[in-house]
Design goal:
Largest sheet: 17 strands, parallel
Helix content: under 10%
Oligomer: single chain
Number of strands: 31
Radius of gyration: 20 Å
Shape: globular
């Protein structure tokens, strides 16, 4: 009887339809084309970008707190309760140890650390550097319209939304703008990266599988080795990355080339700028 049950279960499993790849990141005209996801700015994914392509290329001068913002000096600090932190100039590390914390219109000279297990953090119009960048040990988080002038931009970004940021590390620099280490449906859109040594955008399933990351409309330049580098080790999962409409500067001198992506991916509309020639 046991053998018959096992055989029946095996037959049932064989008859079930195979799992279909996600349409996250595919171009669309309406929600009906996105299999339950939202069609936002012509992309299946359900996340409406804060900036959008029409906002133009982010620069150091147009990100971080406005030039006329009055900032209050502070030592290193830990935010342990849900709150909005605004108008500070933090001399050391800013540690976030509570959910749903917003940091805005501030400067943090010693870097930002989001503790493990913390969710809902939002950094907006924050100037970060030169000592360290952002270490996202919790998830998800959002980093929007920030000015990043540390050797490393955002590390450990799992399910993180990165939009409209400008990253220029101090010379000579060896770090990346973003190092995505896992998660599902992360969004890296409309950022500027001038990487002085590391690849602008790197991704690998380090802490968890990396699925459906959308890399959209970024301006990427520097000395590489790659503009976008998505890799995986044996036994890990890198699935359905979407790399769409990105611009790689003609001044890019990376030794590996503009894009390196291991496995199947959706690549569309990526080009050199300013001339608009398609990437190889």
């Amino acid at each position: 009887m046991r053998r018959l049950c096992l055989l029946a279960l095996s037959c049932l499993a064989a008859c079930l339809p195979a799992a279909q790849p996600s349409v996250q990141g595919f171009r669309c005209a309406q929600d009906a084309e996105c299999e339950g996801l939202r069609c936002a700015r012509g992309i299946c994914g359900g996340v409406e970008p804060v900036r959008g392509a029409d906002a133009g290329r982010p620069e150091l001068s147009s990100t971080g707190p406005a030039a006329n913002t009055s900032l209050v000096r502070s030592n290193a600090m830990t935010v342990a309760t849900t709150q909005t932190v605004s108008g500070l100039d933090v001399a050391g590390v800013l540690t976030i140890a509570a959910d749903d914390v917003t940091v805005q219109d501030s400067r943090v000279r010693g870097g930002v650390v989001v503790r493990p297990g913390v969710t809902g953090v939002r950094l907006q119009r924050v100037w970060i550097g030169p000592t360290a960048g952002i270490a996202v040990q919790g998830s998800p988080a959002a980093v929007v319209d920030c000015r990043l002038e540390a050797d490393q931009g955002v590390v450990g970004a799992v399910d993180t939304q990165l939009e409209g940021n400008a990253f220029t590390p101090p010379s000579p620099g060896t770090g990346s703008f973003v190092d995505v280490q896992g998660g599902t449906r992360g969004l890296i859109a409309y950022n500027t990266c001038v990487a002085a040594g590391g690849s602008c955008i790197t991704g690998a399933p380090v802490t968890s599988a990396l699925r459906d990351v959308l890399i959209l409309g970024n301006w990427l330049e520097g000395s590489g080795p790659f503009a976008v580098d998505l890799a995986r080790a044996t036994g890990t999962e890198l699935a359905n990355p979407r790399v769409l409409g990105n611009h790689v500067g003609r001044s890019f001198t990376g030794t590996g080339g503009p894009l390196r992506i291991q496995g199947a991916a959706v690549l569309d509309g990526n080009q050199y700028w300013p001339d608009g020639a398609p990437l190889p």
